[in-house]
Amino acid sequence: MTNAPVGVLLVDDSAVARGMIQRGVESDPDIRVVGAAGDGRAAVEMAGSLAPDVILLDVEMPVMNGLDALPKILAARPGAAVIMASALTRRHAGMSLRALQLGAVDYVPKPDAANGPSALPAFLDELKTKIKAHGRQRRNTPARSSASTITLPRLKPAAIAIGSSTGGPPALLRIFGAVKGVLRCPVFITQHMPASFTAMLAEQLGRVAGVPAFEGAEGMPVAPGHIYVAPGGRHMLVRKAEDRPLISLSDGPAENFCKPAVDPMLRSLAALYGRDLLAVVLTGMGRDGADGCLEVARHGGRFFVQDEPTSVVWGMPGAAFKTGKAMGQLSIGDTTDYLASAMRGAP
Question: Could you say which of 45, 63, 90, 245 is the most buried, measured as most Cβ atoms within 10 Å of its Cβ?
């Protein structure tokens, strides 16, 4: 069954949207739509009877909305991967990130007509990639075992940097949920996501960690015990001015097809913090972060990666690990424990 197409249940109150999405995703032979529902209540029933691998769940719907339906869907179809679909608004971004805390595995922003004719193809490409990644990961989970049999040296870094993409938000929420209000150093995060989502991600991370968290802004002073998230559409760097670190935003070109990208953040942090920097590359597609990790190592800093068994996609962490400079790779559970200890400044 692992080579069979990923079965998908589409849940959206718009018949037009359901038809458009079905035609788009089924252009990939590795994906098959097994059913479509127009509201959350129908989705709960179909999730149990159709046994899909992946459920694409709209946020706003009549009868029962996506957030209310989510726990019922997961109860009806344990093991299914639920991907939230929402508009590019602050409210919908907040609902999507809340859904990640309730058990959804990912999100996709719906195409915005204001972004021109390329918006729909880009949406469908992202959706197909995430459907296949999450569907295959869920099918293979029982056979996957963690590669993290190593013990990394305990560090007290002056700064921590995290790069992530596909599957990153749930991993980040898990990591910062373990901080428990004690964070000794600044933490800088680049997660590939749109602007409305990065602002809400910062709020959610601050809430679960119990520490101040912000979307990075030009000239913002960097303080210990704070979290800084790169804003969607701009690279986040850190520079020194008058003997204090400040956030600096760049409108430079995309790197590794990403903006914000992990590499420019890591380059600036490596130059500023040197051997006192600890970096980690979490789950994500592509190779963003690999070159930046080389800069971290060149300046005497340390980095590690999330392991392949617990990554949704081992593109980014795999590329960074293959540089040969990583301390090692850890499961998401061990990554959480290790980073929480480093963030607290524990020996």
Answer: 245
